[in-house]
Amino acid sequence: THRIYLVPHVDSNHTFRFEPIFRDLRDGDAPIRIGRFANGSAVNARSTNKIAFDTKVLSRVHAEIWSDNGNIYIRDTKSSSGTFLNSLRLSPAGSESVPHKLKDGDIVQLGIDYQGGMEDIWKSVKIRIEV
Fold it and tell me: Measured between alpha carbons, how far is 32 from 7 in angstroms, rounded to an integer?
């Protein structure tokens, strides 16, 4: 069992804010699905395999995190605005990425900041991984 913490990576005043989230991962368990889910009620409860963020730059199912052979992996699940690991995009828009190994201190960014019109500003989610 691995405990993974998803901690906000704050690099400016425009950072998307969220409470730190942790999950216990076991080899063979269903992946943790990260995205913008429609029914946001108890999605971030530790008893679920879903983590939701309220920002429109995320796809409904944006990325997955899982454990295999004692390692933790992330994969972009065909998101339109991208998943980035230490500033490198994992796959082109609409394409599933290959698995990428996560390590302590990695920075994961979900989506890219978007500004449409005068007031609509949707922020990407920047996460520091702690294992």
Answer: 16
CA dihedral 107, 130, 17, 55 (to 10 degrees): 60
Q: What does pTM read for this prediction? A: 0.89
The confidence score (pLDDT) of residue 113 equals 85
- Can you tell me the distance from the alpha carbon of 25 to that of 116, in angstroms, rounded to the nearest whole number? 37
Tokens 């309220």 sit on residue: 54
- What residues does 120 pair with on adjacent strands? 116
> Could you report the per-residue pLDDT of 88-116, keeping only the tens digit for each?
999 999 999 999 999 999 999 999 988 77
Segment 21-29 mean pLDDT: 93
Would you say the C-alpha torsion 77, 100, 82, 42 has a positive or negative sign?
positive
Span 78-87, pLDDT tens digits: 999 999 999 9
Two tokens at 63? 């990325």
Separation CA 105–CA 117 (nearest Å)? 35
- Cα 13 from chain centroid? 20
